[in-house]
Amino acid sequence: MKPQYRLNLFDFLSCLSDILDWISPMLNDHHKQVALIAMRIADALELPAKEQSEIVCAGILHDIGAISLAERMETLKFEYTTGQAHAEMGYHLINIFNPMRKAAELIRFHHVFWNNGEGRFYKGLQVPLGSRILQLADRIALLIDRKKVVLSQADAITERIASVSGSMLEPQLVDIFMELAKKEYFWLDIVSPLINKQLQANIRLDTIRLNNAELLSFASLIRRMIDFRSPFTATHSSGVSATAEHIGILAGMDDYECFELKVAGYLHDLGKLAIPTEILEKPGQLSTDEFNQMRGHTFYTFRALESIRDLSMINQYGSYHHERLDGSGYPFGLERRQLPLGSRVLAVADVFTALTENRPYRKGMTNEQTILILSKMAENNKLDGEIVELVRIHHEEINKVRIKAQEDSRSEYRTFLENIG
């Protein structure tokens, strides 16, 4: 086993932010804009570097709980008053990963209105200063019209923000924004294509080192982000992960490789964060545009994980799960000789899980039906025939492993829903 995995948290969160905003051109760089504005305000308050870093982390992911395209569009409305639901969901999605727990707390309260001081608390819980900074930063970012010159909008934006000081926003923070708003660089940085560079230059998020248990916790955080957006997908990654790990054992892969298969199963659909739930939940046939949009998800997975060198093989295992041995797969059109064994195992595990798991709109296929489809794909040089043969021989025990993993995940999902009310 690899003793530690190095993770540059900023690089990964930056990629994750990009994926979240790719769901619509109207959201381009929204998370990073909020993070940058919040960082400027926190710096003007002379908050400690650690607190500033936590605020930036929260800003980069602040709308992670807004799960559908329709809801993401709602968050773009200045007078948006129902944001607490997705803020609560965002909190429960990411608070299981220790390095992100403080950011999760800030996300939880970033839609609580100041309400003349009553917003210091929400349902008996103290609202952190960082949450109030995020609330202000979010409102500022929403008022920027991407089609117009930003400096021409500055006065109107400051007037609008001033108009809700005391009601929506904390006056002390608004006063700090008013001083920042007098400086042209403040506005130009927000809309600059170099916004990522500005964030990285001013925030120090150290590379963290994760042992195997911590890496699984990190991967589980991502799994929840991906799967808990919809009951249609709530247990899919858990099923793929358990299935792939078990097939890997049967295929003679060592403990280290099987562990990385398990992690890859959790991460393999990361790119689906860029796909609207309206598409993911569509029970009927997808249109050509919808299908092409869906095909992009493995590419987004690959690019998001690409910056984490220690996850290189895990990335290949997970991101290549729609590649096919004859080169007809996507997004890279790789052939058998270019696909590591783990990628071929995970491709079979993904198809097996998709066919056998129950979905809200259909029952899972029987083992016989599943094996028939897998065998046909192997005959057509789509899937690895030796791996499919292992599944044929051991299909009952593999399916038991899948069912157990998905039952555990379903129970976790029910608890999650109860927690967010």
Mind explaining what this structure looks like?
- The structure is a single chain.
- This protein has 421 residues and is mainly alpha-helical.
- It folds into two domains: 7-202, Orthogonal Bundle (Hypothetical protein af1432); 211-420, Hypothetical protein af1432, CATH 1.10.3210.
- Helix content is 60%, strand content 3%.
- The strands form two sheets. The chain has a two-stranded antiparallel ribbon.
- A hairpin with a 2-residue loop joins strand 2 (121-122) and strand 3.
- Helix 3 crosses helix 6, helix 12 (212-227) runs parallel beside helix 14 (255-267) and helix 14 crosses helix 18.
- It is elongated.
- The mean pLDDT is 91.
